[in-house]
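hey so u asked for the seq, here:
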Amino acid sequence: MRTRLFAVVAALLVFLPVALAQPAPKVDCDRACLEKYVDRYLDAMQAHDASLSLFARDCKFTENGVQLPLGKEGLWYSMSGKGTYKFYVPDVETQQIAFIGTVKEGTRSSSAKPAEEKTVAIALRLKIVNGLITEAEQLAIRPETNLTGSAPASKFPPTGEAVEKMGAPHEIFTQTIPEAERASREELIETANYYFTGLQRNDTKGYYPFTNDCVRYENGILATRECKKQFESGDLRNIVSRIRDRRFVAVDRERGIAFAFGFFDHEQINWTWQIAELFRIEKGNIRRIEAVFLRCPYGMNSGWSTYEQGMSEEIQSIR
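ran it, structure tokens below
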């Protein structure tokens, strides 16, 4: 009996340190949990407080493709309030969430004059690991201004104001896809990518999986009423020379939404758009597209890709 007791104790002494060394079980967020991380992120940015209670110590942060110190620069320096437009794209499978919305940005001034507040459109991706944000990337699409702070003449309203006027995501985006009809994450990405490929090639010979009522909004404004007809006509020929760094960062299978960051190059005019674009997909066809974007230096990188990835037209499925 004593021999058996010693054997049990010895076994416990061997395995106990191993058991204690095991990492805590991974706790995943559901849809509502992921959405709360966006709300907490925006609250933290408005308060200019990148607390370790929300962020991993080595959290990587970029704004408009440039890596910046988290909590100190970009919108983290100047955000003064939150807007009303909120579009969440939770990806429960990869524990990421994308978001398009609006915030307020105050221009700090050394004079006694009150700070001027402007509406800024924001596109965001957060990566959550063990309860903390480990990656944060955002596009901040500000009203155009010159060096004196005044806005140049334009026939289009500032993006933030136009997105704000949309009020809320279109009801199509809020409708749940029946479970039996839900595509996989990769299938939704593949379908959405046909838009990028079709737009770049636009030779009328591509595969254009659009519903007949598909529309596209750009920076809060209706840009295309009949997506399929426009692609099949070849009217977009030579509009875009290259669509690259196609990073699909969040997919909401429950609502058939794929969200991507990327770049549209126009080599003939040395011009690049840095974009965030989302697609509602039903039964293998794109029904609605919405995008926000800003001009950036030609050939800009996202800050998350290698040079080769950044110049490639291949799909990147970000996990």
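The chain has two domains: 31-166, 174-317. The domain at 174-317 is CATH 3.10.450.50 (Nuclear Transport Factor 2; Chain: A,).
lmk if thats what u needed
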